[in-house]
Amino acid sequence: MSTALRFAAKHGNKVWLDETVGRLQNEIDQLQLAGSLVVPKDPGGWWHQYVCPHHHTELLFDESCVDASEFHCPHGCVIEGEAYQGAWLVFKHQSLARVALQAAAVYAAQGEKRYAELSKRLLVEYAEQFPLYPVHPEAQSWMLKGRAFHQALTEAIWSTTLIRAYLLLRDEGIAFEAREQVAIDVFLGLLSESMEEYRHVLIHERNNAENNYTAWLNASLSCVYAARGEQAELEALIEGQGGFIHHLSIGVKPDQFEFEGSTYYHVFVLRAYLIAAEMAQRFGIDLYATTGAEGQSMHGMLQALADLADDQGALPALHDGPLARGPYAREIAEIAEQGLAIYGIAGLAPVLREAYRQLGAAGDEQLEALLYGADRTAADGEPRGSRLWPDAGFVIGRVAGNPLSFLADFGEHGGSHGHYDKLHLTLMHQAQTLTPDLGMVPYGSTMRRSWFAETASHNTVSLGGLSQAPHEGRCMHYEATETSVYAWLQSTGSYEGCTMNRHLLLTEDWLLDWFQVELAGDEPQPIEWWMHPIVAPDVAQQTLTEAAPYRMFVAEKAGDETMLKEHQLPILGQFVPDEGVDAIGAGQLQLTYGLNGGSSGVTPLESSGVSGVSGVLGTSSTPSTPSTSGASSTSNTLRSSSTSGNVTTASVFHTALVQPGDEVIAVQTPGDAIDPSCSLMAILHRRHDRKADFIHVYRAGSAVQLSQPSEHDIWITVPNHPQGAVHVQLTKDKGLQIL
Ligand SMILES: [Zn+2]
Ligand SMILES: [Zn+2]
C-alpha cells in the first residue's frame, strides 16, 4: 500500500485530505494550462549561479515558464548568460520531477486517472531523455559530474523524486507498456552505474566517505534497488563501507549533529537518510530505529532540530546554508512531517509551521503533508530547556520565564562549509530572533567569501579588520539549572597570541554577555566586538562628520598565493554613553530594539514575489556591499523598527559598559543573505589595547542599570524590581559567580 493511502486509511480525516489534494491538483492544472510541463532537452548546470551579480540576491524562478533566456532579480535587474540558464534548468528539472511525484500522490489520494497519466508521461520522457543528455566532454570521475546535471549530487537528489513517483504509481497498479518499461529500465541502469562509480571514487579513491554526497548517492541507489526489487543489493548497501550505517557513524557526531556543523547540511543529509529508510521499509527492513556506532540516529538528528529552532520554529543558519529559501523550506517540511509522524517529536510542530509559512502556505499543508503527514492535532510539546552539543560545539541557553534565549558556536571550523565565527552569539526573543547568523548567499556570489563567511559578519570578536583563523574553540564550563544557565566558551586559535573568553549567563531576568579578550606581547591592536541586530536600535546617536570607513581585509587566493584584499564599510555614527560614574570610570550605553514578531524577519518567500525582508527602507538606493563600497554612502537604507510599518510586539533592552578609551560605533553593512543589498546597521564596540572587556546585558521588558566597582565585579540592577541589585564576579578559575 502506498504511503499516501496508508496515511488516509490511518487518519481518515477526510476534510483535511480533500483540501490538500484539491490544492495540489489545482497547482498541477495551472502548470499544465501554462504549457510548462515539457522536459527540457538541455541538462541543468549549477544552481548556486542563480544569483544577481549586482544585488547578490537569488534570482526569481517561475515554474510556469517553459523556457527562459533572461532572468530577473527581485530588484529589477535582467541577467543573461549560460551559467544562469544552466542554473535555471536545475530548478526546472527539479520542479518537473516534483510535479511527477505530486501528480502520482494526487492520483493515489483521489483516483483521477489523468494525474497518473501525467506523472507517467513525465517519468517516461525523462527516462527516454536521460541517455541523450551529454556526458560533459571534460568529465572526469573525480569531478563527480552528472548527466542530467552538472553535478552528480543534483542528479542523485532529482532521481529520488522521480523514482518515488514511479514507485507510487506502481503501488497504485498503474501499468507501463513494454516500450516505457524498457526506457525506465535503461534509465535505472545508467543511474545505478554512475552512482556506484561515484561512490567508489568518494569512498575508496578519495577516502571521503563521510561527505554529504555519499548520503545522497546512497539514497539514489536505494531508490533504484527498490524500483528493481533488489533486496540483496540494498542490504549490501546498508551494511557496507560508506553505506547507511557506516555513514551515520562517521557523518554525524555522537551529539547527533552532522559533522560540518551546518544546519543546512544536517537537514540535507537527514532527508537523504529518510529516503533510504523509506526504500528499505519496502523490503520490510526497518532503518528508522537504526543507530550509528556512537548512538547516532535519525531520531536524534530530528530532535536536534526541534531543540535548535527559535521560538517561532525557524532554524538558525549555522555555517554554510541559506537563511531561508523556498526549496530549503520544502526540505524542512519533508523531514519535519516525518519527525512528527514516525517519531512523534512534538517539538517539530513549530518547525513545520514555520516551513509552510515561509512557503507562503501558512496553515496549509502541501505535498509533504500528503506523502508523510501525521495527525495534525499534535501539540507543540513541553517548553524546551538548555542544551549543549559538546561535539558539534553549539550551546543553547533557555530559562523558563525569560523570553530571551541564546545560541552560541564554539565548535570545529566545519571544513569547506565552516565560517570564521568562533564564539558567535545569536540572541533570541520569543517574538523574533534579534541577532541571527545572517546565512549564506548562493555560492556563485562573490559575497560568500568577501562577507558572509567572515568574522566581521558574525556576532563575535575580530582583530584589526582580519578574520579569525579556522579553528576550534572549547566549552570551559556549562551549567544549567531551573533558574539559570551559564556557558563559558574559550578560543585560543583565532589569532596568534589571542585568548578569547565569552561568558554567557542567562537568568530568569536577563542575559549577561561578558566577552574578554587578551593579547600576548606588547603590541596593542584594534579589538572589535560585533553585533548585527536585524532591527536598528532606537537611540540618540552622534553623527560623525567625515568618519574614516571601517576597513576589513579578506584573504583571496591568487594562484598559489593568498593575498589580503581591503574592503570598506561606511561608519554611520557613534553611540554616546552616559558619563562614567563608577570607580573604573566606565560609562553606560542604553539601546532598545523594537521587535516586529515573525521569526528572523523573513517574509513568506513566494507570496511576495520578492524574497525580501520586511521593514526595509529605501530599496531603490545603491547597494552598499563590501565589494562596492569604496566610497562611503550615507543614503538611508537602514532598517528601523520604528518606521517599518510593522507593529512592535516586544522590545529588547541592551545595556553596555563602555570603558574609558572604548568606542561604540554604527557601521553600515550588507543585509542578510536573502537580500544583501538592503543594508543593516551593525554595532561595533572596539578598543585599541592588549586587553578588552566587553560587558553587555540584555533584558526584555525594561532596561537594567550596570555599574562596575572594580575590574572583575559588576552590579546588575533592575530598577523597581524586588530582587534588587545582583553582584556578579568574574573569577579566573570558576568564571562568572553570582555573589
Ligand atoms: Zn539585481
Ligand atoms: Zn555564519
Automatic annotation (TrEMBL):
Residues 383-539 form the Heparinase II/III-like C-terminal domain. Residues 97-312 form the Alginate lyase domain. One of its GO terms (molecular function) is lyase activity. The keyword Electron transport does not apply. InterPro entries: Alginate_lyase_dom (IPR008397), Chondroitin_lyas (IPR008929), Hepar_II_III_C (IPR012480). Keywords: Lyase, Periplasm, Signal. The keyword Signal applies. GO terms for cellular component: periplasmic space. It is found in: Periplasm. Its main location: periplasm. Residues 607-644 have a biased composition (Low complexity). Residues 606-645 are annotated as: Disordered. Gene3D superfamilies: 2.70.98.70, Chondroitin AC/alginate lyase. Pfam families: Alginate_lyase, Hepar_II_III_C. This is Heparinase. It comes from Paenibacillus pectinilyticus.
